[in-house]
Amino acid sequence: MSSDTSDTIAYGRLMHRAMRGLIQTVLEDVAEGGLPGDHHFFITFDTGHPDVDIASWLRDRYPEEMTIVIQNWFDDLRVDDDGFWITLNFGDNPEPLRIPFDAILTFVDPSVEFGLRFETQVSEDPDDEPPAPEDDEDETGEAHHDAEVVSLDTFRKNH
Question: Could you write out the DSSP letters of every residue in 86-122?
Fold first, then answer.
């Protein structure tokens, strides 16, 4: 008997699709009615994803991943079946971003301690693994207003 993967239910892929659908619904509601109460989102995404559309200076600064905050000020939030567009303020410079749902790595709403993490797809080829992230200096002292890039460790609970 062969171990053909088509003989199994792809629960991981189905769960990712369902979780991305949840994010789509939440963002559609926010696009229509704004953020309710104290809700706000930290969304980490893969800046190397081919369908991510961000300013080149942001891609240069965050070549692997980036976390955006949707909270006090955002504009032009539009959502479709593939992802969302949003304009955020970086140091008093409004920047439009296009983030496909497939590029999202984590989605966190700390106001209600809700979070989703998307496991990266494991490559069949061990030589294809991405290099470990480097801790280089990124302390430029620039002021960021509203669109902050933060460490999610701040919001993780110790269990």
Answer: EEEEETTEEEEEEEEGGGEEEEEEGGGTEEEEPPPPP
